[in-house]
Amino acid sequence: MKKREGDPWMPADEYGRSLTGIGFNLLYESLDRALEFQSAVLGAKVIYSDPDFAAIEGYGSKWMLHADHTYSDHALHGIATALEGRGGSVELRVYGCDPDKAEAAARELGFTVLAGAMDKPHGQREAFILDDAGYIWVPGVAIPAGAT
Questions:
Q1: Residue 59: left (phi > 0), alpha (psi -120 to 50), or beta?
Q2: Which site in 16, 37, 76, 146 is 20 to 30 Å from 122, CA atoms measured?
Q3: What backbone phi and psi angles, to 5 degrees, belong to 135?
Q4: What are the pLDDT digits (tens) for 27-62?
Q5: What is the domain count for the chain?
């Protein structure tokens, strides 16, 4: 059941054909807080949003958000709505997103910081932040070679 009124920003098939590489679609009970997380914490650009759907771009990637109600007739509906902490063990890594800034914004907006920004032995400075739906976001930047 769609809540959007009027025409979408572009036909769904046109948007679908524009996507390349690896992408992901995240389901949320409501998109309002999810959009705040995407823009204020991750610094991603909300290309389009309505009560049903949002198109996001950032760090050379595109991804989508859908409200649960748009999946009422979808095979994933029962699985997604029954989950607590939808992200489970999946880490959504956002390379090029400053983890210190993301952590500060997350704390200011009341999101859960699982691990604050720190340099890791695999050459990334990263933080682990949980959004309200339980997705684990890992903003990170490369540590310059030779830096300690």
A1: left
A2: 37
A3: -75, 135
A4: 888 899 999 999 999 999 999 999 999 999 999 999
A5: 1
Contact 100/92 with Cβ under 8 angstroms?
A: no
Backbone angles phi, psi at 79, to 5 degrees: -70, -50
Q: Give the range with max mean pLDDT: 70-79, 103-112, 133-142.
A: 103-112
How remote is the C-alpha of 86 from its chain's centroid?
A: 12
18 within a domain of the structure (yes/no): yes
CATH number at residue 96: 3.10.180.10
User: Letter for the amino acid at 136?
Assistant: I
Domain boundaries, position 23: 12-142
Cα–Cα distance between 30 and 35 in angstroms, integer?
Answer: 9
Per DSSP, 108 falls in state H
Q: Is residue 2 part of a domain?
A: no
pLDDT tops 90 at residue 144: no
**Domain contains 72:** yes
CA neighbor of 38 nearest in space, from 51, 56, 50, 23: 56
